Amino acid sequence: MAGASGSMIGVGIFVLLLAGYIAQKYGLPPPAPKIAGIDLGTTYSSIGIYHAVTGETTIIPDDIGKKSVPSVVAFLPNGTLLIGTRAVEQQEKNPKTTIYDAKRFIGRNFEKDNKDFLEDQKRYPFVIKLDDTGRAYFEVAFKNSEITKFYPEEIGALIIDYLKSAAEKHIGSKLSQVVISVPAEFNEKQRNTTGHAASLVGLEVRRVISEPTAAALAYGLHKKQGVESIVVVDLGGGTLDVSVLWLQGGVFVTQAMAGNNRLGGQDFNDRVQKFIIKEIEKQTSKIVDDKEDLQQIRLVIEKAKIRLTSVPKTTISLDLKSVGKFSYDLSRDEFEKLNEDLLKAIELPITAALADAKLEPSQVDEIVLVGGSTQVPAVRKIVGRYFGKSPNYGIDPELAVVTGASVQAGVIGGGWPLQVAAMELPPKRRKRHFFTEQQKENEKDRETL
């Protein structure tokens, strides 16, 4: 029976190879993509498709040309729903009904006195509460005083539906299946809840793939000779994740994970925001506490941080309700000094993950940078100096995960030419978390300056 089964598999593979060869030789149209790859991120989300025959992937932009769509959903007083960039653009006008960072809470249960959750309730301008089971939900008050609950997976579903519509418009046909990425540390409940977000908009989830594995697939490391040990440093808007992968025979094994769920691009922004607010108050003797003003400052600082990745200095220009016009010239050096301890803290999870995997930095074959915050020059310098060699960042770090998820989607969908994508085994180790006390102490020190 085993021999017959092996023969059947061999014949199936031969037929697929033959079909691919005939299609390429005679110019037959490739089959329409059946499956999309989705990266539902904390800060940005994306969708991609794999092209049969060419083996290339396309990350699909939305109707305003954005491939990285902000994971933001806004409920306007008149009932209009905005998603992505349009939601961000009006955020300062409707801070209480514009929801972001929903992924932080997906598939999780909290105790009523959970310190992290209580901090989040103060941190965000919108209302977050816990139901009787400890699940977080967002409370949105509409103009008619109607209050509606939205759970994190429901916010995720709205973002996925937006991405799905863009993809269907691009390919001219309906999508019904998806490969979706999640952080390597996500437990079964978090993975299932993320998958449920896709199912809420009619998508069948064919596979949930870990973000580090997807990033490695994007760089084709599963096909590169001599690669066994891979470190993926994923620094996004809200979290830092470091994963050590072992690659053997087309199988990825997550050997170790470490990270800091309170370290990301938003934390860099918060440091700058506190500094700018103090400068405003020092120069004008006025307190900045209006929520719309604070939201405007937050958005302007995000843009300034992005500009500083390519220029040494930029001007922060504000027109605040409580103060009026204010501007400040922020240099890259000053940005790095304000965030010096946070940048240094990037090394802690890297060291911990390597120790758990029993590896020295010199034994790592490839380093992959993922997440928009790895575009900060100081981050790339820190990682490169730590390992003594340049990391991979040729692919847009915000799109590396969705690219890998799209590759996996194409293979599952039977794309031509026939490929064998890497498999992944679940991690045996739990993720080590760093909520550094030193980080908190430094924060307190800065607040007293």
TrEMBL record:
<comment type="subunit">
    <text>Binds UBQLN2.</text>
</comment>
<dbReference type="GO" id="GO:0140662">
    <property type="term" value="F:ATP-dependent protein folding chaperone"/>
</dbReference>
<dbReference type="Pfam" id="PF00012">
    <property type="entry name" value="HSP70"/>
</dbReference>
<dbReference type="GO" id="GO:0006950">
    <property type="term" value="P:response to stress"/>
</dbReference>
<keyword id="KW-0732">Signal</keyword>
<keyword id="KW-0492">Microsome</keyword>
<comment type="similarity">
    <text>Belongs to the heat shock protein 70 family.</text>
</comment>
<dbReference type="InterPro" id="IPR043129">
    <property type="entry name" value="ATPase_NBD"/>
</dbReference>
<dbReference type="GO" id="GO:0005524">
    <property type="term" value="F:ATP binding"/>
</dbReference>
<keyword id="KW-0256">Endoplasmic reticulum</keyword>
<keyword id="KW-0067">ATP-binding</keyword>
<protein>
    <recommendedName>
        <fullName>Heat shock 70 kDa protein 13</fullName>
    </recommendedName>
</protein>
<keyword id="KW-0547">Nucleotide-binding</keyword>
<dbReference type="InterPro" id="IPR018181">
    <property type="entry name" value="Heat_shock_70_CS"/>
</dbReference>
<comment type="function">
    <text>Has peptide-independent ATPase activity.</text>
</comment>
<feature type="signal peptide">
    <location>
        <begin position="1"/>
        <end position="27"/>
    </location>
</feature>
<dbReference type="InterPro" id="IPR013126">
    <property type="entry name" value="Hsp_70_fam"/>
</dbReference>
<dbReference type="InterPro" id="IPR042048">
    <property type="entry name" value="HSPA13"/>
</dbReference>
